[in-house]
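Protocol step 4 of 5: obtain the predicted structure for the target chain.
Materials: sequence only (see below). No template structures provided, no constraints applied. The aim of this step is simply to have a reference model before the mutagenesis design in step 5. Sequence pasted as it appears in the construct record:
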Amino acid sequence: MPKGDIILVAFPFTDLSATKVRPAVILTETDIDITANFITTQVKWQESKDLLLEVSQTNGLKKPSLIITGKIATLNNSLILGLLGKLTNDEIDKLNQKLKIVLQLD
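Step 4 output (structure tokens):
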């Protein structure tokens, strides 16, 4: 699965107490795992480093949603439950810019 694919995955809570099935966007993939940002419909949480996604046939989301760029996890491929859609090239470019801010890259 390439960068920008939107998947359904059992995403862990930050305290690792449980997981919740939610959409996530793939940042990178290896043979055994993926690194992804989680996506939420709680658009009221938006910070300047987050990316707002509107509903589209391309992304497969049902509500306007945020890619929370500060919520990054590496997960085993077995946790992927399905493919919802994908980001456009423009959205991937915007995500890359937001990730540079979060990761404090020049």
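Step 4 remarks: The beta strands are 5-12, 19-29, 33-40, 51-53, 65-76, 80-86. The chain has one helix and six strands.
Proceed to step 5.
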